[in-house]
Amino acid sequence: ECFQWKGEVPEGLPGWSEKERTHISQELADVFLYLLRLSDKCHVDLSKAALDKLALNAAKYPAALVRGSSKKYNEYKATARAGPAAAQEESK
Fold first, then answer.
1. Quick one: how far is CA 26 from the chain centroid?
2. Residues 6+ apart with CB under 8 A from 28
3. For the chain, how far is it from start to end, CA to CA, in angstroms?
4. What is the pTM of this model?
5. Rounded Cα distance, 58 and 32, in Å
6. In terms of CB atoms within 10 Å, which end of the chain has fewer, N or C?
């Protein structure tokens, strides 16, 4: 609810009051603590899971192909099969 109706939230929260910043800090802390408790209950190594997910996303969305685009991962596979020239042409 902290971000509802705010649209894209700029980095650093310029224009946010100290009260709003405190509120979002508390909300984020709640989410973080819930996530830690949940991962503990599920016996999930959260650090390992995060690193595994980053590696999966890097393979799924190669930076050279996806930078500046919002296509779904399966659309990049076709471009990758067509070769680097197709990827460069498509990014124009």
1. 21
2. none
3. 38
4. 0.60
5. 24
6. C
In the block, tokens 């649209």 appear at 7
Say how far residue 32 (Cα) sits from the centre of its chain: 16
Measured between alpha carbons, how far is residue 17 from residues 13, 20, 26, 49, 73 in Å?
A: 9, 5, 14, 35, 38
Residue 83, both tokens: 């070769």
- Contact between residue 36 and residue 46 where contact means Cβ atoms under 8 Å apart: yes
Contact 71, 60 (CB under 8 A): no
Judging by beta carbons within 10 Å of its beta carbon (0-12, 13-18, 19+), is residue 70 exposed, middle or buried?
A: exposed
Q: Give tens-digit pLDDT for 12-65.
A: 989 889 999 999 999 999 999 999 999 999 999 999 999 999 999 888 888 777
Q: What is the CB-side half-sphere exposure of residue 65 using CA atoms within 13 A?
A: 23
C-alpha 55/C-alpha 49 separation (Å) is 10
